[in-house]
């Protein structure tokens, strides 16, 4: 069947208009240049970065929504105080964009390499990051604080400091812009006993 030129022109224009009416596919939401930091003063986590394809983002902690913020000029920033060492998720609606675990915002636990009790006190060897603030406490009372200069740190605690008891001893560490590590309980020791550990 032959189609006249005017009819063909009209048909082409109609098809073009119909195709133009089809909405473009929405761009998927992406997040990049994501950074996290922790404030020891406000006990808050700050999450910021660049986002495309989203107007507003929400932050959840342990599965509960705790914060939301708009995306302005492709950038976002959310700050939320919290307790514990749970997992955060950054979402656009119900879609999870990224997961932030405690390893990203908290200092790792102290590793106890060895512990030895003598007649004068206890000698510990700890492993951890450089420039960390190491804190040893007994029943919640801080008995020694020091700054590490390497990845292995030797510490001596006198009997006078622990009042001749090795019970209730704990150790934590903290580096800049990170939350204090989870507590490590130090085992009770008898005199002249050395424990080689890895916990």
Give the overall form. Answer: elongated
Unreliably modeled segments: 6-11, 15-19
What Rg, in angstroms, do the CA atoms define? 29 Å
- As for the CATH topology of the largest domain, it is Immunoglobulin-like
By CATH, the architecture of the largest domain is named: Sandwich
What kind of sheet is the major sheet? Answer: 4 strands, antiparallel
- Helix proportion range: 10-25%
Number of helices: 3
How many domains, as an integer?
2
Strand content: over 45%
* Computed structural class: mainly beta
Keywords: Signal
Organism: Lactiplantibacillus pentosus (Lactobacillus pentosus)
Protein name: Extracellular zinc metalloproteinase
Overall description:
This protein is mainly beta. The chain has 2 domains: 30-105, Immunoglobulin-like (Sandwich); 111-196, Immunoglobulin-like. Helix content is 12%, strand content 48%. The chain is built from 3 helices and 15 strands. The chain has helices spanning 5-20, 102-105, 159-162, and strands at residues 30-39, 44-52, 56-61, 64-70, 75-81, 88-92, 95-100, 111-117, 121-127, 133-138, 141-147, 152-158, 169-174, 184-185, 193-196. Strand 1 (30-39) and strand 2 (44-52) form a beta hairpin. Residues 6-11 and 15-19 have low confidence and may be disordered. Residues 1-26 form the signal peptide. This is Extracellular zinc metalloproteinase. Keywords: Signal.
